[in-house]
């Protein structure tokens, strides 16, 4: 899951959205920009700026699996009870 926080482009705005599909997320973000902040924010650079600020959601599965995999190596080295 990826997420976009409008506050990363428009300070003070708490709108955010999450989706697996980046293109869908960009579309939603642009819709939000138009309706909430007006057309002055919408331009050729906006899509690039939105994409730059789309991040993987915290607790995303691939990240978490990697974390568990690296810690389980340490746990595996400990004696079992
Ligand atoms: Zn906003």
Structure description:
By secondary structure, this protein is an alpha+beta fold. The protein has one domain. It contains three helices and three strands; from the N terminus they run E-E-H-H-E-H. It has helices at 22-37, 44-52, 61-77, and strands at residues 2-5, 16-19, 54-56. A three-stranded antiparallel beta sheet has the order 2-1-3. Helix 1 (22-37) crosses helix 2. The longest helix is centred in the C-terminal third of the chain and has 17 residues, at 61-77. The chain is elongated and about 65 Å long. Mean pLDDT is 81; it is low at 63-69. The structure holds zinc ion. The site of zinc ion (ZN) has 7 residues, from helix 1.
List keywords for this structure.
3 helices, 3 strands, single chain, binds zinc ion, 52% helix, alpha+beta, elongated, 81 residues
């Amino acid at each position: 899951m990826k997420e976009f926080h409008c506050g990363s482009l428009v300070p003070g705005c708490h709108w955010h959205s999450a989706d697996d599909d980046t293109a869908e997320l960009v579309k939603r973000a642009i819709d939000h920009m138009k309706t909430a902040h007006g057309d002055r924010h919408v331009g050729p650079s906006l899509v690039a700026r939105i994409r730059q600020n789309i991040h993987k959601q915290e607790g995303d599965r691939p990240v978490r699996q990697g974390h568990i995999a690296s810690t389980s190596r340490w746990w595996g080295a400990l004696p079992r009870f």
